[in-house]
Amino acid sequence: MKPPAEPKTGRRTLSAASRKKIAEAQRKRWAKQKRASKPVKVTKVPAKKQQERKPRAAKNAAAPNALSSRSETVAVSAQS
What we know:
Largest sheet: none
Helix content: 40-55%
């Protein structure tokens, strides 16, 4: 029995004629597949409606804080 041959290193080079044959065969496969495929019908999908955002109220206008109401009462009692 022969010992296994060592793997060759490097790349195999193809002749220009071989590359041309391979390219032509690939083009034929693509053409055959293109003829066999059915045309795809494109449909439009309506865009999702975005929810309307409510504007944020200013903090002071939305809810007066406890300190501002106290200062008003203090000011009122000081005037009387």
